[in-house]
Amino acid sequence: MTYVVTDACIKCKYMDCVEVCPVDCFYEGENMLVIHPDECIDCGVCEPECPADAIKADTESGLDQWLELNAEYAVRWPNITIKREAPADADDWQGKPDKFEAHFSAEPGEGD
Ligand code: SF4
Ligand code: F3S
């Protein structure tokens, strides 16, 4: 089992999650984060910290696409353990539909 970051993170990227993860298993893309599924210890503390409700347990159904995306990009993007400032327009993107199709970026973020 692992927790997984979904498309709800895209362009919100609040980064509250990275501060609470005890094993530092978040990885940073240009406009979203992912969780490394082999490093996550399923503690669940990150899930309620996300203002965008973007983090789910993989025991929920319908997450296959995001599980694959987390596994793929966790090995391509840099590790992030320190929260930076969220995008200025993060609140505007909360709950917007179809963010993956319109706005996913495969580019890496800065990392720590
Ligand atoms: Fe980190 Fe725990 Fe969240 Fe997994 S469930 S990403 S170990 S805080
Ligand atoms: Fe994304 Fe939520 Fe973390 S918006 S960066 S999963 S706090």
Descriptive account of the structure:
This protein is an alpha+beta fold and 112 residues long. It has a single domain (3-85), classed as 2-Layer Sandwich (Alpha-Beta Plaits), CATH 3.30.70. 19% of the residues lie in helices and 11% in strands. It contains three helices and four strands; from the N terminus they run E-H-E-E-E-H-H. The chain has helices spanning 16-20, 64-74, 99-103; strands at 3-5, 26-28, 33-35, 55-57. The strands form two sheets. Strands 1-4 form a two-stranded antiparallel ribbon. The chain has a two-stranded antiparallel ribbon with strand order 2-3. A hairpin with a 4-residue loop joins strand 2 and strand 3 (33-35). The longest helix has 11 residues, at 64-74. The chain starts with a strand and ends in a 9-residue tail after the last helix. The chain binds iron/sulfur cluster (SF4) and FE3-S4 cluster (F3S). FE3-S4 cluster is lined by residues 5, 9, 12-17, 33, 50, 52, 54-55.
Blueprint of the fold:
Elements: E1 3-5, H1 16-20, E2 26-28, E3 33-35, E4 55-57, H2 64-74, H3 99-103
Antiparallel strand pairs: 1-4, 2-3
What does this entry show, briefly?
With 112 residues, this protein is an alpha+beta fold.
Q: Which labels suit this protein?
A:
about 110 residues; alpha+beta; Alpha-Beta Plaits; two-stranded antiparallel ribbon; 3 helices; 4 strands; binds FE3-S4 cluster
